[in-house]
Amino acid sequence: MIDRVVDPTHLVMNKTMRRRLTQAARNASVGGYINWDTDAFGRKIAVYNDLPILLVDDDNEGNAILPFSEANPGGGTAASSSIYCASFKEGMFVGIQSGDIMVEDLHELQAKPSLRTRVEWYAGMAIYHGRAAARLRGIKDAAVTA
Questions:
Q1: Contact present, 93 and 132 (Cβ < 8 Å)
Q2: CA–CA distance, 95 with 106 (Å, rounded to integer)
């Protein structure tokens, strides 16, 4: 999957998958390339093969993103998940916006002492290159083995 992406910068997966990879890296019979680094804010982040691992968690309704409930590509009964590799660089996989962030102060509420502010930002993501991202699918919720 990593080799299919032009100049990859990140891996994207759920927390359970990152935990499985970390466990496999500790196992001498499996090995691996999981390391720990710090980001620009001093937080520890997992890194696989020099690619930072971005974690997806839940959406705004509390539903898991990338859960182990995707249909199995082989047609079996066991559910699976996916890992994505992406190149978050100019001309590859990027964030886009329509205008600037708009902030409007709606002042203090009459009913209670709190301030109200409206923030509008029309943003999205775009893939400009055919090899800016790749998906590895069919990953079972089980220990990683060699």
A1: yes
A2: 28
Q: What sign does the dihedral 98-101-107-112 (CA atoms) show? A: positive
Tally of domains within the chain = 1
DSSP string, 74-108: TS-SS-EEEEEEE--STTSEEEEESS--EEEEEEE
**Which residue from 132, 105, 131, 133 is spatially nearest to 117, judged by alpha carbons?**
105
The residue type found at 146 is A
pTM: 0.78
Which residue range(s) make up the domain with 73?
2-94+125-140
Q: pLDDT digit string (tens) for 53-95?
A: 999 988 889 888 888 888 766 666 667 889 999 999 999 999 9
Q: Where are the alpha helices (DSSP H) in the chain?
A: 15-26
| pLDDT tens digits, one per residue of 96-128 | 999 999 999 999 888 888 999 999 999 999 999
